[in-house]
Amino acid sequence: MPNIIEITDFTAPELDVYARLTEGQLLNRHEPEKGLFIAESPKVIERALDAGCVPVSLLVERKHIGGQAGHIIARCKDIPVYTAEFEILTQLTGFQLTRGMLCAMRRPPLPGVEEVCSNAHRIAILENVMNPTNVGAIFRSAAALNMDAVLLTPAASNPLYRRAIRVSMGTVFQIPWTWLDGEAAGWPAAGMQLLRKLGFRTAAMALDEHAVSVDDPCLTKEEKLAIILGTEGDGHAAGTIADCDYTVRIPMSHGVDSLNVAAASAVAFWQLGRRR
Q1: What residues contact residue 169 under an 8 Å CB cut-off, 6+ apart?
Q2: What is the pLDDT of residues 39-76, one digit of tens each?
Q3: Which of 120, 129, 137 is nearest to 153 (CA)?
Q4: Phi/psi at 4 (nearest 5 deg)?
Q5: Are 207 and 235 spatial neighbours (Cβ–Cβ below 8 Å)?
Q6: Cis peptide before 251, with omega less than 30 degrees from 0?
């Protein structure tokens, strides 16, 4: 039986997760097992549920309870479902809800690098990519364009930040990912060493006159390839290009010298995800 709760008090502590907690507070670095994330819109919430994420509560525009949110509420069983009219929810959260629905969920434990890469042939590495919008867009391209997994260096933005999840359309729950830590900590040296141990050749996407073109047949012939994308402003960390097996560029025209990292990822994944 759904536990529908009408919102009457904006200051109620159970609504903090939607209205007042920052991404850092949701992450809860001191007690990661208690960390939360917010999934927005029915499609994204459903993808998170399909991936086994555990819901804590729902925030739903009243008109959707018996409509598009109904089957998700049923899947979540007896968790609290906080509801009000659209205008009240907008006032509470500070923004307009996408399709009238948010879900607070527990952050799932992440697998190790070796587990994520165990059956992978094409992986993406996000080196210090700090913009959540770019992270979300890269995940969406990775899921759509034949990447088997995504690895992130510790300085990258968290894929479970609300904006990253929203931009990814929930694909952060559909493609395996984890952080380059543990044995792979100390990027790039330790991470590169582990990737080679796992059988991967490495390709850094960079604006370098000595780089090979992204359509070079040598790249698509590689059995296992890790495609490394650098941060938005500074590009790759010192040592990354030197440690890579390939430096790869995307040929451009009209005097354009570079692409946004998310756009570049889509081009690279499309071309390099097709093995020969």
Answers
A1: 43, 44, 47, 140
A2: 999 999 999 999 999 999 999 988 888 888 889 999 99
A3: 129
A4: -80, 125
A5: yes
A6: no
